[in-house]
Amino acid sequence: MLVDFAPLRIPLRRRLQTLVVLQWVFSFLALVLYATWWFWDRNTPYQGGRRFRYVRSLGLWGHFRDYFPIHLIKTTDLDPKKNYIFGFHPHGVLVAGAFGNFCTELTGFQTLYPGLKPHMLMLPLWFRIPFFRDYLMSGGLVPSDKESAKYLLRRKEGGNVAVIAIGGAPEALDARPGAFTLQLKNRKGFIKLALQFGAPLVPVFSFGENEVFNQVRNPKGSFLRRLQDRLQKLMGISLPLFHARGIFQYSFGFMPFRKPIHTVVGKPIEMEKRESPTQEEIDELHQRYTEELSKLFEEHKTQYKVPEDRHLTFT
Known about the structure:
Shape: globular
Order of helices and strands: HHHEEHHEHEHEHEHEEHEEHE
Helix content: 25-40%
Structural class: alpha/beta
Strand content: 5-15%
Low-confidence stretches: none
Distance between the termini: 90 Å
Strand order of the largest sheet: 1-10-7-2-5-3-4
Largest sheet: 7 strands, mixed
Radius of gyration: 24 Å
Number of strands: 11
């Protein structure tokens, strides 16, 4: 005897259709809820962010630290009752040293500098990406604009550190092994900010930062460099053509080389607060900062296998 299953197929088809509709409804509701949350929370990145110690302490970051490995070197104590600006150099391709030391808890920042909270400044573009913005803030990152930095530096209770990769995205285009060229000559916005809030400036140099990736030759004036500079101006991010090693071979790939990174935190440069600093005061402090950064480099370079005849170059 043959059984006709046709009557059973219609309910099954309807159930599947119902499931698809419910999926779309829940997806739509989730998007609406997140969009509402995003609108309500839109100013949080510019007001110190929303860091989570759990995210900053994940075991994953321990593997990241040990891969290179990454070390944080202290040269002097810092007063937790003050706010600071850390000038990080060099940018490198991926700012690995800055991320490992200031966006995670696994290189000992809290032990070395108790009472201080580092906030790495990052291009505002990335904080416009749904969900990714929340992940960035959980690590202590905030947008790299004046509003965000001023919020950190005006906190009267102190204890905030604004970590700024001074060379920014353009400096990444010069990041390659053996390179010690820093974009600093025309970078004076952070100097003015320090004067306006009386926030001590701390030069930071990360030895080994440029050693973890090779980069396709792109001398200034070349077609590739002109194209990269134009794209950087249009998009706000640089596009270095980097390469290093693979997972199972060492001749080519996009994983970084396992080269040690030693991030040395220098001594603070104190200054008096100037709400409206003159250009002369800005230039004077900029020169002093440049000298202190060079001094920090010279004092530690041989310890981290930089040849004695190599010096910093500023553009």
